[in-house]
Amino acid sequence: MSNGEVKQIDLSSQNVLAMRDAESALAAGATQVKVCPRGVITPSARDFLREHGIEVTTGSATVAATSSASSASAPTAAPAPAATKRSPADPRLFSTPEAEAVKKEICAVGKKLWNRSYVDGNGGNISFRIGPNEVICTPTLMSKLDLTPEDLCLVDLDGVQVAGKRPRTSEIFLHLEIYKAVPEAKSAVHCHPPHATAYAITGRVPPNNIIPEFEVFVGKVAVSPYETPGTAAFAQTVIPYVREHNTVLLSNHGIICWADTVTHAEWYAEVVDTYCWTLMNASMLGVPISQISEKHTADLLNIKKSLGLPDSRFDTEGIRECQLSDVDMPNSIALLPCSKDGTSPLSSDGPEMDRLVKTVTDAVMNAMKAS
Ligand SMILES: [Zn+2]
Question: Is 171 marked active-site?
Answer without folding.
Answer: yes
